Amino acid sequence: MNLDYIVREPENITSKTPILFMLHGYGSNEQDLFSFRESLPTDWILVSFRAPKPTQMEGFSWFDIDFNNPEQFLDIDQAKEALEFILQNMMAIVNKYGLVEGQTHLCGFSQGGILCYSLALKYPELFNKVACLSSYPEDQLLTDIEKSKKKRENLRFFVSHGTDDAVIPMDWGRKGAEILYDLSCYFTFREYMSGHGVNRKNYIDLMEFYSK
């Protein structure tokens, strides 16, 4: 499946140019995280995907969610399928630009963050800086993660969550820090006085993470 996306290209692109892929949340679209572009490094390629499934109200989703059933919060089969075609689209774009030496970064919000956890922990050698915003690691998508610590040594995570998040509970978000700690990953975990979103302090910290 070829995903729709929008892109910001730097003036000069070489084999070492970094690229950042963005995965939006449920009911949103490719414009959402792309709004961060003015604060991100100007020499990066930015690619923001649109999820393929239209939602009932507006926007798009990567997989169905049942907000009334915490035990079966997401459709696992759809999520696994999404992981496959997202990775295929990422690799196709990396190859298109010839980025054989550049770093590949991820940024995902909510549903997109769930997928970023899975992509980074399943294929750690492919990614470097990974931001998981207002999301959580889904155990059913982490059954075959990479066990080699050496392959994870270049991974850096930024995990953030709002203390008043009414969509994905704070406790779910904290599970991300616990799993990354158990895996001996490099990570920063931040809690903010906010709901299901990115407030100003969160945004500033996120941009600092990507600028290092």
Provide a quick synopsis of the model:
This protein has helices at 31-34, 76-97, 111-122, 170-182, 200-211; strands at 5-8, 19-23, 45-49, 53-54, 60-61, 104-109, 129-133, 156-162, 186-192.
- Pick out the low-confidence regions: none
- Hey, roughly how much beta strand do the residues contain? 15-25%
Structural class: alpha/beta
What share of the residues lie within helices?
A: 25-40%
What is the radius of gyration computed over CA atoms, rounded to a whole number of angstroms? 16 Å
Quickly count the helices: 5
Mean of pLDDT: 95
User: For the terminal residues, how far apart are their CA atoms?
Assistant: 34 Å
Largest sheet: 7 strands, mixed
Overall, the morphology is globular
Query: Got a strand count?
Result: 9
Strands of the largest sheet, in order across it?
Answer: 1-3-2-6-7-8-9
In N-to-C order, the SSE pattern is: EEHEEEHEHEEHEH
Describe the structure in your own words.
Helices cover 30% and strands 20% of the residues. The protein has five helices and nine strands; from the N terminus they run ββαβββαβαββαβα. The protein has helices at residues 31-34, 76-97, 111-122, 170-182, 200-211; strands at 5-8, 19-23, 45-49, 53-54, 60-61, 104-109, 129-133, 156-162, 186-192. Strands 1-3-2-6-7-8-9 form a seven-stranded mixed beta sheet, sandwiched between helices. Strands 4-5 form a two-stranded antiparallel ribbon. It is globular. The N and C termini lie far apart (34 Å).
